[in-house]
Every structure is written in C-alpha cells, then in structure tokens.
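#lab-general

N.A. 3:47 PM
ok so I finally got the sequence cleaned up, no stray characters, all 255 residues accounted for. can someone with queue access submit it? mine expired

B.Y. 3:52 PM
send it over

N.A. 3:53 PM
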Amino acid sequence: MSIVYTVIGNLPNAYGTLRLICPDGKSITLYDGADRQINGSYHLEQLGNYRLKVVFSSAISGRESLERSFSLTGEEYKVEVSARFEREKKDIFDIKSKDSTTSGFFKITKYSNPSPLVKIRYLRNSKGENREFPGPHFLVQNESRDTLYGEWLPGYFWGTLSRWEDGEYVGNYGGQICTTWKDEPPLYPNAKTMAWVASFGRRTSPGKYRFNLYYSTKEGAKGSARKVSETDSFVWWSAVQNWHLLTCEFEVKAD
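B.Y. 4:20 PM
back already:
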C-alpha cells in the first residue's frame, strides 16, 4: 500500500519539509525543498502507528511545524496526505480588512474497504422519493454496529458513477451537490436509506456502471479541517480522516 502526498506552497522565499516516522522508528524525508508544488508516493510496508511532521519556513512567519499521526490495521488500501501554504485574510467576514496571515493546511486521509455488514444494492425500477429524482437509485443497509455518515452531509449518501468501457471502469461523474437540504440523521445500526448520484441523480444511458460511495464511521465532512493552533503570524488547519469506499456494479438496460 502506498502513501500519496502533495505539497503546495504559493508563497515566495518559503521552504518546507515533510517527514514520515514509521512504526519501527525509521525516519523518511518525503519532501525537502522550495518547490511551488510537489507530488509523490511512498510504499508503506508495516502495520502500526505512523507519524507525519510538516515544517514550513518563510521570512514572513518564521518556522512553524505540525505533527499528526495515523494507524494502519491492514484494512486500508491508500493514504493521501496534502499540505498547502498560503496567505489569507485574518478575518474573512470583514471585507474592509487588509490584515492577512500565513495559513498551513495539513490533512491525512485513509481509505479503507467497507465492512461486509454494510450492504448496497441497485434499485432497478426505483423512481426516487416522490418521483422527483432521476436514477440510478440504491439502497444502503447498515447491519454493523457503527453509525454511518455521508461524504458531504451526515444523512445523505451521494456517490459517483464510473462507466464500463474497453474492459475497465472509467470516469467519475459526481453531479451537483446541494448543501442547503434540511438536516437528516446519519445511518444508524440496523437501518437503511436511499443513495444516489449527487443531489439530483442522473439519467443514465444503457450500459454497465459502478456506483462509488464513500462513508465514514465518524461524523465530519470530507475536506473539512479544524483550526488547531494560531499565532499572530500563522494559523494551522488540520484533519485526520478515514473513509470507506462502498461500490455497486449494475447495468442499465434499454427500455
């Protein structure tokens, strides 16, 4: 399994490092430089607890660092790490303010296989709730002991579509996400719910498809990061998340 990392620095005269400390104590430097953007990967051979330390230095904010950890249990198939540094307004709600600060965003995302007790099936003849959403539609049934949360809003399970072409699934159609919907509870144990592509679904042409749905067993939206520390010249935002990929292969037939 690999750890895939991206470091983006849009600030002049800045320098960064990204270091991985393995369960056996071995330290590996993944990135050390002043590039505006770097992408890379590293093969992870051990299970256990890993630590990642990111360091940022610039003439404006000085030297800042943050360390986060994650564990591998054998259920994961990919780990993504992203670090981004930029200047932003100190008060985003004050349109007249010209004060700015340097911000660091540091996120670790683990992707794991779903529990066999979380099941999904294609509803071939479903018209959706009140018939207002075009297909395809799916039913997710939670027979596990975990509470499940959707990728964007806790009670909504919106996924993406890939189409079978030339011997493989290609594309990742996501549709339009609507975040103004009323609150819905997450999917509790021994409960079931509808799932579809984005908020409004999609009318699909005949063919073979795969529905790709991420869910979490911890509350929180994908991409969210919390403020973990702040000084007069620097703010750290960070998140460590784990997402499970639930898939359903199905076929749309001509009417």
